[in-house]
Amino acid sequence: MTIKDIAKACGVGVSTVSRVLNNRPDVSDDVRRRVLEFVDNCGYIPNNSARDLVRSRSDAIGVVVRGTGNLFFAEMLKTISSLIEKSGHTMVLHFIDSDADEVKAGAILEREKKLIGLIFLGGRYDYTPAELSLIGVPYVCCTYTNRFGSLSEEDYASVSIDDYAAGYSAVEHLISLGHRRIAALVPSLSDSSVSELRYCGYCAALKEHGIEPDRELIAEAGGCFEIPEAYDCMKTLLESGVEFSSVFAASDTVAIGAMKAIEDKGLSIPGDISVIGIDGLVVTEYANPTLTTLVQPAEEMGRQSVEMLLSLLEGAKTTRHLLVKPALRIGASVRKI
Amino acid sequence: MTIKDIAKACGVGVSTVSRVLNNRPDVSDDVRRRVLEFVDNCGYIPNNSARDLVRSRSDAIGVVVRGTGNLFFAEMLKTISSLIEKSGHTMVLHFIDSDADEVKAGAILEREKKLIGLIFLGGRYDYTPAELSLIGVPYVCCTYTNRFGSLSEEDYASVSIDDYAAGYSAVEHLISLGHRRIAALVPSLSDSSVSELRYCGYCAALKEHGIEPDRELIAEAGGCFEIPEAYDCMKTLLESGVEFSSVFAASDTVAIGAMKAIEDKGLSIPGDISVIGIDGLVVTEYANPTLTTLVQPAEEMGRQSVEMLLSLLEGAKTTRHLLVKPALRIGASVRKI
DNA sequence: AACGTTACCGGAAACGTTTCCGACCCTTCG
DNA sequence: CGAAGGGTCGGAAACGTTTCCGGTAACGTT
In what order do the strands lie in the sheet with B246-249? Predict the structure, then answer.
């Protein structure tokens, strides 16, 4: 069944059928109705390859995910996937390693699959306009904030929580409960704007309250917010003998690893050490103890990313930047001292 | 840059270039080398739309995931995605709700995207040959075992752990440590072969050891191995006043929810109640207490699924069935009584 | 020497759509 | 009454590839 068959069956030309199917004007209501009615009943499935060929582009939106051990992305992916589908597009998913270059990966993907748009999940912090110009289609950087000014506002679109505020709030919460010696567990700072910003929030909150950040309390975990790396990192910190009453984990997955390391040392949470995370993963609501964390709404952010990309695809010239406010979710992993 | 350009540049015909690019015979070594050399240096990107159009099929493999809250699938997806990519195909991911029909969804997806193959993650237990015949391309049912004989071996291909054995071993482990009153927490039995089989393993192990399964100890959670549903289900069971010393959770996510419910009631694990799961999620290695579970190797199973599908695509007539043996991972959530 | 076979190659059709262009009819206006 | 213009439509080119088919040259066989 092709549009040629439809044309023949309806006694019209193929171009007319094409116009009807694409909601174009220049078709009389009478013909439009006739064609539409026939199409509805004949089980016609458009041939995307043919459309893509002549338009020399596809209907696919690429999603590049960096940091696959990060459960937060898994939570977002479902929303993103279903919204992309609902909008009539196809999602092309691409996982990359934490040390890979997502812009390059996205650019390759774009050309190979003839993407019309891209969503990046888990960004570095040091994009340059030159790099980004490799990408020839609209894109949204989700989970990325250009806090360090390597880009101007018009260079990109973004959806993220205010990672700086999240780090700041987390630490402020600890301080408000009497903590002064607060360790920080952050994934490779240079790899991610998220990590970097949350760390900066940590430092700022400390300074704001008259506490000088202590190099000894800052542990840089490898990887991309993965649990095992966080565990190892926390273990090393504990064995270093440095004193602290609480841990600021740069993400919930990091917190999960950290909590385990603490417990394995025979220490209790929050009895001996308090732990706070950022992300608000579902699973940490069911952890023991329940993690106190700053929630970034996965579904909301996924939805906003897709909607923003779609509006860019429709030609909206105003590249927007959405900064969601993180919300404190009080668990049982932090105590007053 | 098209193959026509390449043909012109190399002084050969387009069909020759096409043959070279597709590794076809009937090309002299000399010409082949010349074309290949040129192609390597000119940054040619094949136009998939054109290829798909003339072949009237794409290069895409569909992955239909049912039960999105199940973290196990998230762990598999990365492997599946990267292997599909590495094989030169495109992955089309499709999440469906726990009450949706994955065969129908797969069939639609197949036609719309002109898929060449499908992988199903999270299957029902009651497929019929008639239903499956809706799917016109090779497919692999991952996480599905045709234990109930509605299908014959040639009707499908599958990769899964021996879910029956997993349920059996889990319960046997509990019994070997002195447990006799073992509650079972299973997601909607009728929805999933996995759930059903693990439950059967549970019953069989009990009977084998002279314990009659007690209806009161069996709690059916809604949903698809989701944490919150499991929590609610466990909570209800605890409040029902039935006595038991341990819980057989049909999956690790179920176990996570169950453990939380138990702790929220002020009971300790494994002090008051032991918990055993199935899946071997990374996150449960870092739970408190570490979950005792039967590991199904996510990466291995993802790899096998893709490889099996690829071999089917190459025309292998032997539909295979892989049944991975689950491995007991001892944690701290079960105690001897 | 004639013929068959093999290896290699190029031309051209075909895939199903979009879109450009021209054509037709009808209305309106000078 | 003729021209202009808008509304409606169909034909055909074009997109870039694969594949069928036919052709040529070289070589071996009878």
Answer: B218-221, B182-187, B246-249, B274-279, B292-295, B327-329
